[in-house]
Structure formats: C-alpha cells, structure tokens
Amino acid sequence: MPDAMAVQVTIYLNEADQWRHRPLHMEILNYLRKENVFAATAIHCVAGFLGRHNVETAHLVDTGGKLPVIIIFVDTDEHVNRVLPTLKEMAAHRLIVRENVVLEQGNLE
Fold this sequence. Notes:
Blueprint: E1 4-14, E2 18-19, E3 22-23, H1 24-34, E4 39-44, E5 47-48, E6 56-57, E7 68-75, H2 77-90, E8 95-103
C-alpha cells in the first residue's frame, strides 16, 4: 500500500498568549477537538524564541509567560482548510506553518 498523504500544521505561540482571557494553546486544542481534527498536541518548550527576540529559557523561579508553546496537528487537506480560518483569527499575531507530509504508519481514520 502506498504511503498516505496528510497535512501537518505547526503554530508557534507564547505561553502568555490568550484568547478570550484563556490560555490560547488550550483554546486552540479545545477548538481542534471540537472540530474533530485527527491528532493535535501542545508542546511547552524549555527554551526558544519567537520573532527576532532574545532566547528565553525556563528556570524554576520564572513565571513570566515568555516561553514558546508549539501546537502541531495533522489531518486531511480538506479538514485543515476548514479549520485554518478560525485558527488564523485566534492566533492572528503568531506564525502558522502548513506542510504536506507522508504518513509512514497509521492512517487518518
């Protein structure tokens, strides 16, 4: 069987980002789940930067909300096309990357 094609979207956020006074990464995950997206995860980074800002690192005493949070989700092209307009509104100020990917294992059913 040939490898199946899918679309992977990566959204680069900041842990302090909010949507309607709630953490943006959780609101995006809840939206994706509600829209029946196949798979999604949020990754809370220990170091990184957004834009052309300085590298931020995690320390046990820090609570500044400056660390990156990355959301990655995978689904069919049609499904991604349906959810992207809302995601672009929710994360209007952040980087969103879309890539065509090959599913090496598993399927989107």
